[in-house]
User: Fold this.
Amino acid sequence: MRYRLLGRTGLRISELFLGAMRFTTVDESRRVLDRYADAGGNVIDTANAYRDSEAIVGEIIAGRRDRFVLATKYTMSRDGSDPNAAGNHRKNLVLSLESSLRLLRTDYIDLYWAHIWDPLTPIEETMRALDDAVRAGKILHVGISDAPAWVTARANTLAECRDWTPFAAVQVPYNLIQRDIEREILPMAEGMGLTVATWNALGHGSLTREPGPTADALRAVAAELGATPAQVAMAWIRTRSRAIHPILGARTDEQLADSLGVLDLALPEDAARRLEATAEFTPGFPADFVGATAAAVYGEAGARVDA
Assistant:
């Protein structure tokens, strides 16, 4: 396992994250974590909405907590009958964070995510509340999951202007048949130096279990490379950007062992292009328009200018 920096921070994070959403039992989850740690992985990603996940993670990292980059999330409702028990406002942040710290058996969170964009809460309130928690030492870095690119960009611009802690990372779904982040979110993240944690690499199983052109292509490429379709799907994601860190969502030790096989898999460029050809995708406006008009905009000399 190799390491990169979390966004524009000095925190070292492994190239693959371990998702704890599917953790259900302590013994099996400990085996999964041990295998991940033995491979060099150091990032555990959970959330207060993932059933008993935080409590399980807290138990299995006891005695070695500081060896891991611990990430969790808030936003999702803690009590459906209480309108203030959900959202990215200060009250929910404070109460959610205290609960997560208690369940995780720690006094700080390495990376605290806003779980989803809350259009009802001003982003200024969210960023200031997160910064207060950083200054209090309860969290070290912050990120946002499942949010428009303009929200993240505005939030970090506000943080820069007001000396608040900026988002260091975004978390988004990404796979061969769900490439929406290539339109705005991925270019924004690369331009702003943000880490991109990706989930749903297998399209909820449709890429490996259901018939179709993309699944057939995955199986064909996997057979050629002596790999599994899941490993090929993950390998394709890893070719897209150095900012991307796929999240491995394993429930069992066997599932994680298969996923970790991607570390030894080099996906040839021609195989990647064949996979992409099976699922139509275009960036859309304005990216397509900007590319199509480049010759008219920059003239003949423009083709000789290196970015």
Q: What stands out?
A: The chain has one domain: 3-304.
